[in-house]
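agent> fetching stored inputs for the zinc ion docking request
agent> found them:
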Amino acid sequence: MFIAEFQEVGRDLFTRGLVSSHGGNMSMRFGDRLLITRRGAKLGHLTELDLIETGIERNDRATPTASSELAVHRAIYQSTQAHAVLHAHPPYALALSFLVDELVPIDAEGRDLLEQVPIIGTEVIARVRDVLEEVVASLETHKVVIVRGHGTFARGQLLDEAHRWTSLLEESCKIASIVRFMGGSGKMPGKSKVSRSASAILRA
Ligand SMILES: [Zn+2]
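agent> prediction call returned; pasting tokens
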């Protein structure tokens, strides 16, 4: 019944380059159960066999076949009002996560809708299980977060909403990266530094 929603979002994520062929995962919550993509599923080519139903609190026979990020999805549902969770590997967002500690979009839509996006993890490549509590706590107040060097976790009432925040974040990161490239040595993307880069372009 929900396969069409998973397929539409998965296809968009893959074709837009927000996940690799077998990367990323997503889920929807139904009471104390969730529907999550299978471990190693190709999000761009999902079938009904790629959706695994299991418990939010309890394991069952299907649990071992669920996405390797099942623990993160469960923890987010246990602590937030989310009904959908999406994990992706957007390249511009990941690239910026190596350079800065938080991201403030410089474009109007990104700033209006995302405001500020936490980058979680002190290691160059953070392991999600080491920063699980921080991811969950940040998603209580933010729509999307970045785990440094790994990927994004977004929440929504629908998969499409979590997809929207992921897509918007990547667009904002792409714009910020282009501004940095055009502005030369300006560092990214603290508010003031980005403003300097942008004003340098306007003067040029
Ligand atoms: Zn991942």
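agent> quick read of the result: Residues 185-204 have pLDDT under 50 and may be disordered.
agent> awaiting further instructions
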